[in-house]
Recover the amino acids of this structure.
């Protein structure tokens, strides 16, 4: 009997030790910070108003939506909503929020916040936002109705194939922002001069500090809803720190010296960094083709400045840029292979379609391809009426005006600067006078979306696995229809057809038929070249070997599960 008691006591001691040791091991996961870099200051901390990655990079950690996408199989899964139901006709969707959800100030997240986000923000004409383009089908918004504190219903006028993906839209707090909306001040709320403590979110982190030109610090949200598999509160990290640097070259130097923890590797950096992985204690992850796009775009905005009454462009430039043969000539002068070899060190992919090969299912390779051919470019320019009549080396249009324009790009992105320089060289060899101008990223965004004071731009867009989420770029009425935005009616027949295709695609539940619609869209874009594509890079990210729970995914990237990542002891 005594032996039995000793055995029982021994087993109990072992179990207690295992429990305490496990607790200590888990406790050691908490603390520390991840330090990253960005090359521009955020323009605000308001995700509804955001149009640039310098803002969304930050707000993506502060706010969440009803659903999210699995980064491995790309299927939609619950997020703030724990479940949903859909009517047999596919027009009524009912979402139930998780129990106990709280904003970062401790207040409950409820159906009122979802109704507020859609009805008072996204579908409010007084609030400029790109999300409205995504959620509007044939000019009709969704109906959003509260059922009870945890239940909200969306009533659609038409079938909306990517609806569940679209429910990743960030939800904002009514109790914080409702007053600003009623007073017409929402557009000035949560700007960069805001008190960090006033930004209330639902994400894993909350805003702690912002110093212009220096950095942004996010701290752990104590009310975050997610738990680990062992039911531990997340996130593990105390802080997420962003250092603002003037360029990617400086970012690379900071990574090399160890002051930041991760770096998006450019092709040109790969030969330098790859041999140093073991010595410097990091690893480079290759996640395939970039999901976004890289292009040259020409201003075709025929509108006038409402304040001055002046046109945004001189009439001769508008005529040049609106000429398809001119844009096709430019497309034939873009040496994609040279860009891949020189700028991306061979680690790249020529781009011909608005969809990236990384988007897989919806990517269409069967589009018009503009191979590098300066002879063909000269023929097209001659067809468009450009000749060097006075033999000074510069082409003139039919009215004798020299073919001269300014090409902009953002100074902080050295890859874009190099791409712009290569393009400029070939355009000048054709007889164009191209003035390359480098500007700060947010200044460039303001020109594209507000002042419309620009000729041509080398830029890029982030991508998506579903073409519908590029609707704010491709609809003629879209906020980011860069070459001629916010049209009251389509300016061209091909833009009208793209409007039709997106309306058809969003309502078609058969994936193969949807693909046919989006294939046609990609072919039209390749034919009309509103954007002249360059080359995509490989998605390479170097990360220090001090983090646990890294699970890199093709779609989600290296830090898609940031709340689960911890500093290894």
């Amino acid at each position: 009997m005594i032996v039995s008691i000793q055995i029982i006591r021994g087993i109990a001691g072992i179990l207690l030790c295992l429990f305490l040791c496990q607790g200590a091991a888990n406790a050691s996961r908490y603390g520390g910070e991840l330090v990253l870099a960005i090359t521009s200051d955020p323009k605000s901390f308001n995700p509804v108003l955001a149009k640039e990655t310098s803002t969304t990079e930050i707000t993506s950690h502060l706010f969440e939506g009803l659903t999210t996408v699995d980064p491995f199989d790309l299927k939609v899964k619950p997020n703030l909503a724990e479940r949903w139901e859909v009517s047999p006709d596919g027009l009524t969707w009912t979402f139930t929020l998780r129990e106990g959800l709280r904003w970062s100030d401790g207040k409950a997240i409820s159906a009122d916040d979802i109704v507020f986000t859609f009805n008072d923000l996204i579908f409010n004409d007084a609030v400029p936002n790109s999300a409205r383009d995504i959620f509007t089908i044939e000019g009709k918004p969704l109906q959003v109705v509260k059922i009870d504190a945890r239940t909200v219903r969306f009533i659609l006028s038409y079938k909306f194939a990517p609806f569940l993906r679209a429910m990743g839209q960030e939800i904002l707090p009514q109790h914080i922002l409702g007053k600003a909306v009623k007073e017409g001040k929402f557009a000035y709320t949560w700007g960069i001069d805001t008190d960090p403590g006033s930004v209330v979110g639902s994400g894993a982190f909350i805003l702690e500090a912002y110093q212009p030109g220096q950095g942004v610090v996010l701290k752990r949200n104590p009310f975050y809803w997610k738990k680990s598999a062992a039911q531990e509160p997340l996130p593990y990290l105390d802080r997420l720190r962003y250092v603002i640097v003037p360029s990617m070259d400086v970012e690379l130097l900071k990574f090399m010296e160890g002051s930041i923890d991760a770096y998006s590797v450019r092709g040109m950096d790969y030969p330098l960094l790859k041999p140093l992985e073991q010595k410097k204690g990091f690893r480079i992850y290759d996640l395939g083709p970039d999901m976004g796009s890289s292009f040259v775009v020409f201003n075709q905005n025929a509108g006038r400045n409402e304040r001055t009454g002046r046109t945004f462009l001189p009439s001769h430039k508008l005529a040049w840029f609106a000429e398809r043969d001119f844009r096709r000539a430019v497309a034939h002068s873009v040496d994609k292979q040279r860009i891949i070899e020189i700028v991306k060190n061979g680690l790249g992919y020529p781009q011909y379609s608005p969809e990236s090969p990384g988007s897989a299912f919806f990517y269409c390779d069967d589009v018009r391809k503009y191979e590098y051919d300066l002879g063909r470019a000269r023929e097209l320019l001659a067809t468009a009426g450009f000749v060097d009549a006075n033999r000074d080396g510069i082409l003139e249009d039919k009215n004798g005006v020299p073919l001269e324009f300014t090409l902009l790009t953002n100074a902080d992105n050295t890859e874009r600067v190099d791409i712009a320089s290569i393009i400029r060289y070939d355009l000048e060899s054709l007889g164009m006078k191209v003035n390359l101008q480098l500007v700060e990223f947010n200044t460039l965004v303001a020109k594209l979306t507000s002042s419309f004071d620009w000729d041509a731009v080398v830029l890029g867009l982030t991508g998506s696995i579903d073409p519908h989420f590029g609707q704010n770029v491709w609809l003629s009425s879209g906020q980011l229809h860069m070459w001629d935005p916010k049209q009251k009616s389509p300016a061209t027949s091909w833009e009208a057809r793209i409007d039709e295709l997106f309306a058809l695609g969003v309502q078609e539940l058969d994936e193969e038929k949807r693909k046919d619609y989006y294939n046609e869209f990609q072919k039209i874009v390749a034919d009309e070249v509103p954007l002249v594509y360059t080359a995509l890079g490989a998605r390479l990210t170097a990360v220090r070997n001090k983090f646990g729970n890294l699970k890199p995914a093709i779609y989600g990237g290296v830090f898609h599960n940031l709340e689960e990542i911890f500093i290894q002891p």
